[in-house]
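Notebook entry, structure prediction.
Reason for the run: the old model in the group folder had no record of what sequence produced it. Starting over properly, with the input documented here first.
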Amino acid sequence: MDQLYREAILDHYKHPRRKGHIDGPDIHYHDTNPFCGDEITIELKVTDGVVTDAAFDGRGCAISQASASMIMEEIVGMSIADLKEWGKEDILELLGIEIGPVRLKCALLPLKALKAGLYGLDEWPE
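New structure, fully documented this time:
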């Protein structure tokens, strides 16, 4: 089973989903992992407290880029309130493989950027 998840991670790395930019995003947040140099920028369109479009851009290792791709696919249609509840376990479940402590920061960088952007939007209805 791990092999299937590894293949999915490599596929998302080689063929990222929702990579690029959104015109006039409601949320735009950039973050980096200073230890390895990974970078992620998250852009979201939000209507009535629900994510209606999502994109990311960045560079880095397969884990950080695949995690961003998987997250962007997953969150369209979700409410800001639900996304604020997301945590480490949700990302690890998306990735589907055990991640060691060194790679954990890579896997969680897109979540960190997403959460930072979301908490800047407290004025949106939830």
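Summary: The two ends are 37 Å apart (CA to CA).
The old model has been moved to the deprecated folder.
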